[in-house]
Amino acid sequence: MFKVLVSDPISDLGIQKLVEATDVAVDKKPDLSEDELIAVIGEYDALLVRSQTRVTARVMEAGKQLKVVGRAGVGVDNIDLEAATQRGIIVINAPDGNTITTCEHTFAMMMAVARHIPQAYLKTVGGVWDRKSFVGVELRGKVLGVLGMGRIGSEVAKRAKAFGMDIWGYDPFMTEERAEQLGIRLSTVDDIVRNADFMTVHTPLTPETRHMIGSAQFEVMKKGMRIVNCARGGIIDELALVEAIDQGIVAGAAFDVFEVEPPAADHPFLNHPKIIVTPHLGASTVEAQENVAIDVSEQVLNILRDAPFTNAVNMPPIPATLLKTLQPYFALGEKLGSFAAQLTEGAVSEIKVSYSGELADVDTQPLTRYIVRGVLAHHLGREQVNVVNSMHLAKERSVNIIVNKTKESRDFTNLVSVSLRTKTEERLVAGTLLTGYGPRVVQIDKFPVDVAPEGNLVLVSHNDKPGIIGKIGTLFGNNDVNIATMQVGRQLAGGSAIMVLTVDKAAPKELLAEVTALPDLNKAKEIILY
Ligand SMILES: NC(=O)C1=CN([C@@H]2O[C@H](COP(=O)(O)OP(=O)(O)OC[C@H]3O[C@@H](n4cnc5c(N)ncnc54)[C@H](O)[C@@H]3O)[C@@H](O)[C@H]2O)C=CC1
Ligand SMILES: O=C(O)C(=O)COP(=O)(O)O
Q1: Catalytic status, residue 490
Q2: What CATH number should be reported for the domain whose range is 455-530?
Q3: The domain over range 318-453 is classified in CATH as 3.40.525.10
């Protein structure tokens, strides 16, 4: 039974799939302090959070069983990604579910700041009928600067067009074509800062974006501009903003997010007549909360059940088309890695992976992660190594990883071969996917074979002499170990050969010793593939 802890307010409807799963038990414990979370996290396989819970390195360390942290939302700045990667904890988010909701909140804030709605509301309900103090400005015809043209920024731009705004956007990943498609001007931060009547930021908070709008930018801004932050506190320097408002440069600001949340009672935004605030409500709609909770629950279930998943934040994303091509190879890759590791004696210093055939044309990095997982898991335990931390663990252990690709593949449409080097030897296992048969191991060292990589195998190396097969069969029979399949591979008649047996249960050590003691036998080794 997998145990899942939900430590922030997450939609009940959204996590229904998790709650109803018969292999999952869900506990809800909101508002835990870091120490309280540390005290309980040890028994959980998954943790579901929003932006409140701080998932620090200490929390990860205490999470001895923790396999996944699911963020029901976009920003993962409350999660120590480095610590997660080092421990092989997968961090996933739900990047699409709250885009429209946050975009709409940005608009609500932009209109509210243009028309002084919160200030006018307060005065009106206070009994003062004041129509003079709240003359606003139109959005129509104004330059809207958008910093960060990702999911939310792009949606803001689309809606701003309907308001007749002139949109200038900046994003390091935005092309001219994309800008043209959206009908916006591809600009620079400096141009936007100098020309915007309204400005809104939609980037993550990174060392690069921290205070990307500060005193230097406010100094050159158009007098009377208005600024909105529904992304992350800290992208706009809060103190520099207050100064710019007080100097008459900025006419108004609308903030949903703060450098420290919740802000201190004496935070300068909280009583400022020209700054309107909301308590990080960007994603807070019924629809968005349901969407993100559904998305994150599905992926958490996949991860717990060792099924393919998407939206991992601490590993490179795999585009859907690439995933479709590679997914069938993941299990094969991991098994080839594991097979090769079990063949090899001593510490592995190099993993050489070769992709031949059609696979040479695609980005095989995700598959390499599975192969490396297979190799390392043999020594470190499958629980400790996964596709998130496999490359990191290899690097930590100074294991050199070499990947070769060639479009030529003589006998198969695709061939994946894994060879491992240690101080004393180099061993190779190659496999392919055969239509109708699934994953097959087709080469072990220099010997061609055809073996399904699953269950208990025994690999025997011997000299190709008459009678050997019979003797081995008898020994296995005497020990009550049933041989399901047997494959013999050799290069030359009478030369060295290998035999791969698939057996119905693990072969006892004594049996393997007996086999090895036969004349013309070199070695008998058990290989277990899950
Ligand atoms: N207030 C709230 O409740 C919510 C806030 N957010 C926040 O909104 C922000 C944007 O979210 P999405 O659009 O979903 O993310 P996204 O990843 O789709 O877009 C972010 C964009 O920022 C761009 N970017 C990165 N560095 C930049 C720089 N130095 N200058 C300009 N652009 C830069 C990236 O290239 C990317 O296109 C995130 O910080 C997210 O955490 C998201 C949802 C709710
Ligand atoms: O998704 C995001 O990045 C958000 O900021 C939303 O945060 P929340 O889930 O409302 O705490």
Answers
A1: no
A2: 3.30.70.260
A3: no
